[in-house]
Known about the structure:
By secondary structure, this protein is α+β, with helices and mostly antiparallel strands. The chain has 3 helices and 4 strands. Strand 2 and strand 3 form a beta hairpin. The protein is globular, with a radius of gyration of 14 Å. The relative contact order is 0.29.
Amino acid sequence: xxxxxxxxxxxxxxxACARAAKVLLETGSHFLTHADFGCCDGVHKAWIVVDVDTKxxxxxxxxxxxxxxxxxxxxxxxxxxxxxx
Length: 85
């Protein structure tokens, strides 16, 4: 499995922040209920880290629950990167 970061944007109104948190919590998915939000710092997105097989699988975890289009990208820590100069 690979590690992916899922980014889920939402509108900047307070009600939109609350709605986004509520939707993620109500999914019951362990991954989605442990999302981190940037709203308190003016970045109206949630981030979720998951271990799945593909980028599409990561992105599709949110789709049935979230109206906006989530983005996903592969993650690696600095020790596992192949750094070239």
